[in-house]
Structure formats: structure tokens, C-alpha cells
Amino acid sequence: MRAPVLLLIAHGSRDPRHAATVHALVERVRSLRPGLRVETGFLDFNVPSVGGVLESLAAQDVREVVALPLLLTRAFHAKADIPAVLREAPARLRIRQADVLGPSPLLLSALERRLYEAGLTPADKSSTGVVLASAGSSDPEAIAVIADIAREWWRTGWCAVRPAFASASLPRTEDAVRGLRALGCERVAVAPYVLAPGFLPDRIARGAAGADVLADVLGPAPEVARVLLERYDAACRPALAALGA
Prior knowledge:
The chain has helices spanning about 15-30, 50-60, 75-85, 105-115, 140-155, 175-185, 200-205, 220-245; strands spanning about 5-10, 40, 65-70, 95, 130-135, 160-165, 185-190, 215. It is α/β, with parallel strands linked by helices. It folds into two domains: about 5-100 and about 220-245, Rossmann fold (3-Layer(aba) Sandwich); about 105-215, Rossmann fold. Strand 1 (about 5-10), helix 1 and strand 2 (about 40) form a beta-alpha-beta unit.
């Protein structure tokens, strides 16, 4: 049996850096799993659209697809937008929607990678406060997940870790930076918990003006690619188990 096609579903953006980063991540996934067919579809702004990719796959006689949202939390897009698009897919396609990427220990490793690339070292952890800056959401579940990640990350040895949001929720990045200064952290770093550049990541960067260190977005970090493959494998597992039975 051929392995299901992996369809990565990205939000899309008018900012060309967004699509470029998504495509770089796709190439990283392909390098880790040679032979796996990986396609990309966008919900908005960019092409190809998710619906267009699904139509094309059906025309090529593909039968099995794992649709994987390039999202870090289960918010509106994962719960509503993406399922709605997948329901409109050609009937001949069997589609399984994989889980979103976060939370995952691998993503914490990717966040630390980006901070070290920005100039910090493991020896700086105990004296550095970190702002975990996400895009933000009006979904209480998504907000609670970010708070949980901040607490888990703090337990790995950072002076403090505070969540912040670029939209929809508070505090903003600049407020969290000031809070860590007031707490007495020797230095303050901002770690964007976002996958690709764009409007909201740029807002995070502006809010980090008072910090000592601003890390890059997660982008095509190898840890992110590994999470994608973990989610893909987990979505494939029930079908493989049924074949074994």
C-alpha cells in the first residue's frame, strides 16, 4: 500500500516571507522522509489553495491523504476552517486530519535553538527571563495551552518565562518584557512561538524593542520538521493497525 500523501495546510499571508518559509519547511520534511509525497495548500492569500490541491490529488487517482494543519495550537482554523475545507474534498479521497503541532517537547527544543542562535548560551538560562510570544487567539483553549507551555519551559531552568500575545489576548510582548525587567531578570529575551514571518510576527518584533535578545521564528527548524512527521505517523497509525488486523 502506498503511504498516504502528506498535505500541509498553511494559513497563507500577503507577506512573501510566509510562503517562502513554509516551502523551506516542506523541503526539510522531504529531506527527513525521502519518498514521502508532501504537498502544500493555503487557506488564503497564496496558491495553491487547499481545495485545489485536493482536486488535483483526486484527478491523479490518489486515495489516501493526511491533512496536517501548520498550526501551533487548536484554535478556530483547526476546529472550523480546515474541517470545512476538507468536507468539500472529492468523495474518492479518504482524508484524515492530523493534530496540530503543539504542544511538543520538540518545539521547546526549537525555541531554545532559536534563542541560542540569537546569542544566548545554556549558561545564560538561570539569569534570563523569556517572553514566549505567540500570535494570539480568542479561543480559551489555545490561550491556556500557551500558558502551560510557558510554565513547562520555565521548569527547564530559565529565570522566568512569561506568555505574551500579538493579538486578541493580553499581555502584549512589550508588557511582558517590562514585567520581566521588574522581576529582576538580568537579561530579557523574546522567543516568537510562530512558524513563519508576517504581520503578527512583525508586531512581536516591535514589542521586543526593550529586550536584549530577539529570536527568529521557528521556521524550518529540524525539530519542527520532526514534529510534522510525528503527527503524520500518528494519523496513519489507525489505518495501518486495521490492515494488520
